[in-house]
């Protein structure tokens, strides 16, 4: 799993990519239309799977709708497409970090919404032509009921439901960005989407397909005026939920936290350094002083026995230097390093018993 800081960095890169993609209008249009159609797939499966449950009055209808709708956002994530609701979070993070300009981010978001709308409308045309949601079908009745409920909601309710919806949608995208396992990404997307659909929150791109189906089919409550009111209120709410509650929140949450002892600041979720996790030093190894250069410290021989310890070792206390070859009495201290290494024996005073000189002291 990526840290929060790493995930924000990845989102900033994604924001830069989205803005650059707009420089190739054809590619941008195709990717935004695909996202609108993919979310439309969620509306389709929601109606066809939940319609029979609605008709029977089952209390499990909202839960089933929420469970199946997750396929829509999963396709967007896995297949790759440009969705406006997730762009609200990503572009905000890129603008706050300075990777893209605010004006350029706003233009990119509006262009994404337009592409999503076109893709949703084309998909609705195809679904209408197929007849799977025609009047008289359970799915068609569910679409008609959804439109009636949306028309009955106040503008304030639409706005707040839009905030709550995109809080969950952007959490799904944010969590998926942090995860490195494909299975975990899919699981978290389904979980977050299930909550917002089951709770009855409002998603601006999903509503594009719903209203398009209603307008094409001439359903009650599906008027261009109502469509515009819904897109404006829900779209603004989605922007607040995605840009502020998730996007800005995690940019702020990725800031370094000062340490208590005044040491350099560390990230809120920074892992411990390799040095702090190093294995214990084996017994007999000389431990370098804090701040000592590791290479230099490693040059110190540490093997037991490298320093002569046998009884009878020549004393090394600093004394008057003795010229090479000058006889010295046994036990006389000599300066360290004054004895030539080539010498095999140390001259002793004349008449001194050599056995006594060699005896341990």
Outline the fold blueprint:
Elements: H1 4-21, H2 25-56, H3 61-80, H4 84-96, H5 102-130, H6 138-152, H7 155-178, H8 182-199, H9 204-217, H10 224-253, H11 294-298, H12 354-358
Helix pairs in contact: 1-4, 2-3, 2-5, 2-6, 2-9, 3-8, 4-5, 4-10, 5-9, 6-9, 7-8, 7-10, 9-10
What does this entry look like structurally?
It is a single chain. This protein is mainly α. The protein is 62% helix and 0% strand. It has helices spanning 4-21, 25-56, 61-80, 84-96, 102-130, 138-152, 155-178, 182-199, 204-217, 224-253, 294-298, 354-358. α1 (4-21) packs across α4. The longest helix has 32 residues, at 25-56. It is globular. The model is unreliable at 270-320 and 334-361 (pLDDT under 50).
Which shape, going by the Cα principal axes? globular
State the helical fraction.
55-70%
Q: Oligomer, anyone? A: single chain
Number of strands: 0
Task: Report how far apart the termini are.
Answer: 67 Å
- Give start-end ranges of low-pLDDT stretches: 270-320, 334-361
The count of helical stretches stands at 12
H/E order of the elements?
HHHHHHHHHHHH
C-alpha Rg (nearest Å): 38 Å
Describe the main β-sheet briefly: none
- Return the structural class: mainly alpha
- Percentage beta strand: under 5%
Mean pLDDT: 81
List keywords for this structure.
globular; 0% strand; disordered C terminus; 12 helices; 361 residues; mainly alpha
């Amino acid at each position: 799993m990526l840290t929060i800081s790493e995930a924000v960095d990845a989102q900033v890169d994604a924001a830069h990519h989205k803005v650059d993609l707009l420089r190739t209008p054809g590619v941008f249009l195709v990717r935004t239309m695909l996202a609108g159609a993919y979310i439309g797939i969620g509306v389709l499966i929601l109606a066809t799977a939940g319609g029979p449950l609605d008709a029977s009055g089952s209390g499990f209808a909202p839960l089933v709708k929420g469970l199946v709708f997750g396929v829509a956002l999963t396709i967007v994530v896995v297949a790759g497409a440009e969705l406006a609701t997730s762009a609200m979070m990503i572009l905000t993070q890129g603008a706050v970090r300075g990777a893209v300009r605010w004006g350029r981010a706003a233009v990119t978001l509006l262009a994404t919404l337009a592409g999503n709308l076109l893709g949703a409308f084309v998909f609705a045309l195809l679904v209408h032509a197929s007849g799977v949601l025609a009047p008289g079908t359970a799915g068609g009745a569910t679409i008609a009921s959804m439109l009636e409920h949306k028309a009955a909601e106040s503008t304030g309710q639409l706005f707040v439901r839009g905030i709550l919806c995109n809080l969950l949608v952007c959490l799904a995208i944010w969590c998926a960005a942090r995860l490195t396992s494909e299975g975990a990404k899919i699981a978290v997307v389904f979980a977050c989407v299930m909550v917002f659909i089951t709770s009855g929150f409002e998603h601006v791109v999903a509503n594009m397909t719903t209203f398009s189906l209603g307008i094409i089919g001439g359903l009650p409550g599906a008027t261009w005026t109502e469509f515009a009111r819904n897109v404006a209120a829900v779209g603004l709410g989605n922007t607040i939920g995605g840009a502020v509650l998730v996007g800005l929140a995690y940019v702020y949450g990725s800031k370094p936290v000062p340490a208590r002892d005044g040491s350099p600041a560390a990230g809120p979720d920074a892992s411990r350094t390799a040095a702090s996790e190093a294995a214990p030093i084996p017994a007999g190894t000389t431990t370098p002083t804090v701040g000592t250069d590791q290479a230099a410290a490693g040059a110190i021989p540490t093997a037991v026995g490298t320093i002569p310890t046998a009884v009878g070792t020549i004393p090394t206390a600093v004394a008057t230097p003795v010229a090479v070859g000058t006889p010295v009495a046994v036990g006389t201290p000599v300066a360290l390093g004054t004895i030539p290494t080539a010498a095999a024996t140390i001259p002793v005073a004349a008449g001194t018993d050599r056995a006594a000189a060699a005896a341990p002291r």
